[in-house]
Amino acid sequence: MNEVTLIGVDLAKSVFQAHGAAADGSTIFRKKLTRIQFAKFMAEQPPCVVAMEACGSAHYWAREMTKLGHTARLIAPIYVKPFVKRQKNDVADAEAIAEAASRPNMRFVPVKSEEQQARSALFRTRELLVRQRTQAANALRSHLAEFGIIVPKCMCNVKRLVTYVDDPQRLLPKSLRDLGLMYLLQIADLKHQIDQLEKSIKSEAQDSQISRRLQTMPGVGPIVAMAIEAFAPDMSNFKCGRNFSAWLGLVPRQHSTGGKQILGRTSKVGQKDIRRLLIIGAMSVIKATTIRGTVKGSWLERMLAKKPRMLVAIALANKMARSIWAMLTRGENYRNPMMAAA
């Protein structure tokens, strides 16, 4: 009888579907299991490869499978979809996951540690609160606009909102004034919570040797450094800095054919949080160097002379990503503190 060597698992909140396959690809079993049954069932299986889609709770189950002696493999859903036959259901999905995992050139998602996921949750919570604060400010701006009070965008104009709501000379309805005070209290509370989260992020960045090393690069502060630690896999997964930059989506999208190379806009695939923060960091570097002045004949000076600032920022973020790969793989600090001479 063939022994199971690969199990494809379609994860869910309550009911899991498992597809066991032998080394030759033949089906050994198809099982529908509850959450409790799944953990017990996998503990009874011989050590094998357990493949799952990189979805909600996948990293947790990958760590649990590793504890049981299995080899956990996570696959991006986009790579599983081509293997689904005809109709989509749990049975077909589990089989497709097993089929995708058996491909020799399949790309797998690195399993995150508990510490990485905790830091990810910290960043996600901060982003949520920032969005909520922006939504509250925009809602108040729109309500005041209906009464002829126009306040420009940007959170720096919140003080003007306070002035308009509290101004007794403006004949605003009492209900609107009370509503405005409610929004302002919510914005102030959200700002306090965001400040507390940023303190936690900066504290963790100070305690981490990797984050301290990353912060030796211009444009990389504690938030960017901690984002790289939280969201980026081990740099040994990338052969070179260019691969890491491509993983972040900071390279042109390729659509080449017939030996002709055709490059388009940036691909914007991969980890968007790090990509966004690196571009913001690059913009801050450009702003600082334009004030101080760039090194004559440097790459940055030549780029700014002939290209739009945003395009230069993306190109600089690409260079920063490559430098980050080199710093982390070699265990070195940033060598040249003058990014303008990059």
UniProtKB/TrEMBL annotation:
Residues 7-147 form the Transposase IS110-like N-terminal domain. InterPro entries: Transp_IS110-like_N, Transpos_IS110, Transposase_20. The lineage of its organism: Bacteria, Pseudomonadati, Pseudomonadota, Alphaproteobacteria, Rhodobacterales. One of its GO terms (molecular function) is transposase activity. It comes from the Bacteria. This is Transposase. It comes from Octadecabacter arcticus 238. Pfam families: DEDD_Tnp_IS110 (PF01548), Transposase_20 (PF02371). Residues 212-288 form the Transposase IS116/IS110/IS902 C-terminal domain. One of its GO terms (biological process) is DNA transposition.
